[in-house]
Amino acid sequence: MAGHVAVVGATGAVGQEFLRVLEQRNFPFEKITFLASARSAGKPVTFKGKTHTVAELREDSFKGVDLALFSAGGSISRKFAPIAAAAGCVVVDNSSAFRMDTAVPLVVPEVNPGDVKSHKGIIANPNCSTIIMVVPVWPLHDVNPIERIVVSTYQAASGAGYQAMVELREQARDFLDGKKVTPKVLPHPIAFNLFSHNSKVGENGYNEEEMKMVKETRKMFHCDSIQVTATCVRVPVLRAHSESINMTFCRPIGEKQVREILASAPGVRIVDDRENNYFPMPLESTDGDDVFVGRIRQDISQPDGRGIDMFVSGDQLRKGAALNAVQIAEIL
Question: Which domains are present in the chain?
Fold first, then answer.
């Protein structure tokens, strides 16, 4: 029993998914509080058939709270998560604020659940793209260490929040009606278009989203030597991220062994029907808990037998955010 639970950012896209996941998994608690900024305070939220009023997030909001699920942005987390932890609350934070802090465990339960034990009041939820990748990659790495990963992402509008999803719907209607499409939330038109992920590009030419996948994978795998290169792209999909993953292993590995490993891997569902050309799709992984994996094949450009390709798809709002955080809370 978690005692008193608080959901911070309860009115946002991930916050709303927190409520759904907590309800669907029948997460045990004695009391629950919903918190948000002053702008959203007073709004109603529905949870387990009852309407609750969202309270304003304040410095004294965590008195008597045992567990807090944060999804209100990095600046809010940086200010309030330490306050919550100091009040004796354990924080599971969905922002990027603490992910690379050496004192804060970064956890995907299917990958490194034992790291939860080292927390000092705050546990970080990884980036959504990283989560979708490492769930199927880790069980392979655990059997045959991976030297290098080349990943290209196809990231849904949901990764930019609820308003980006609304913008995709509106732009699609305007485009089909012959109207001018004007982006407001995202930097470029998203309907019938795709563009490089809308995060800041660094001096090395990689954007922040791409570097998150590099650094977070190394931290969770406890393996600084693994080489990761990523290209992250925003695509006109409402929710569920997809990724093309190419791996180079230390030793030769065949697609049969890969299938056998993934068939029993937690959080993974194999969708790989070559005869019917049926593979993972965001429409089908949406609202699901598993990461769909398909297109499993030997990389013919690596004649030494150490290369494997696969294509994956997983719900960004669920396993990529809310579900992963609640699974961490279940370990706690």
Answer: 4-126+321-331 (3.40.50.720), 130-316 (3.30.360.10)
**Tokens (6 digits) for 237:** 């999909």
* Widest CA span in the chain: 62
Helices H, strands E: what count in the chain? 8, 15
Chunked mean pLDDT (size 10), the chain, 332 residues: 89 90 94 92 91 94 96 92 96 96 98 96 97 98 98 96 94 96 95 96 97 98 98 97 98 98 98 98 97 98 98 96 96 92
Whether residue 128 lies in the annotated active site: yes
Q: How many CB atoms lie within 10 A of CB 260?
A: 12
Question: One of 128, 141, 197, 232 is an active-site residue; which one?
Answer: 128
DSSP letter string, 31-55: EEEEEE-TTTTT-EEEETTEEEEPE
With tokens 């990529």, the residue in question is 320
- Annotation says 119 is catalytic: no
How many angstroms separate the CA atoms of 308 and 187, rounded?
35
What per-residue confidence (pLDDT) applies to 1? 66
User: 180: how many CB neighbours lie within 10 A of its CB?
Assistant: 7
Which listed residue (119, 141, 197, 241) is catalytic? 241
Question: Which pTM value belongs to this model?
Answer: 0.95
pLDDT, residue 153, reads 98
CA distance linking residue 123 with residue 120, whole number of Å: 8
Tokens of 52: 């609750």
162 burial via Cβ count (<10 Å: 0-12, 13-18, 19+):
middle
Predicted local distance difference test score (pLDDT) of residue 120: 96
What does residue 122 show for φ and ψ, rounded to 5 degrees? -135, 135
